[in-house]
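User: What would this chain look like folded?
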Amino acid sequence: MTTIFVADEHHRLYRHWRETGARGLRLCHVDFHCDMRGLLIDRDAQQATFFDEAERHHIDQGNFLAHAVMDGIVDGLRWFHDPFGGRRYDHGTVRYERDLRVRASRRRLGPWRPLSFCEADLSQWQGPEAGEHLDLDWDALANTLYTADHARALQERFLATPFRHRPEAVYFIYSFCSSVLDDDAFERFLARLRDKLDAQVVRLSALSDEHSTVSRDTTRRQRIRARLIAPFKGPQLRLSSALKSIDTGRDLQFDYRTAPLGPVSGPPAHSERS
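Assistant: Here's the prediction, encoded as structure tokens.
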């Protein structure tokens, strides 16, 4: 039977995996953000390492997957997101082997860990593959930057996708810092996903350490404040540099298997904010 693990913050999964002794997981990561801040991935060699030494020493919702990869918890990762999402809209995002920002320092980096990795447009997603766990962040389908109509369309398309392979585990994360604050909508989607997979639901306890930004019991005002101070996870509408624009401008112009996806356009007009 499939188990859906529900958590308020994404880095709660890292603690769950450590507690359960998880090793060598393959994840289908559906998320507006990469959650791999500080990681460099060589897509040609299918390996990864930290490029930012500071990221080795703390874990939060923006880098927990980087630690999961480097600790051997995750060794396969397929990242899917809407075209209005991904590296170009994220602070401190994962970097790739062709990025201008890492070429000069790459020879000094290491150690490297094997990582089967790809990034692709959510419209190309056909459900989890055999043996994968599904890691679903609510902000991939109900981001604060989406209109209600766009969010509903993404949610319906997700639920309509046939799951040829039923995952053993699904991780469904609220991510208050970047998702629409609508508990009822979140719970309705959870119920529909549970029914689709004939799954059981397990709610993980909230984090209580200094890295926790919010819990389900906090007020709406506290959640909004937490969203503003959440470390490096919020979308970045103004690109930090010309180099980042060049690096991320090439993203998702290829399919992770064979057929090219074509260039990604900018944010859809209905998703822009003044």
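The CA atoms of residues 22 and 160 lie 30 Å apart. If you want, I can go into more detail on any region.
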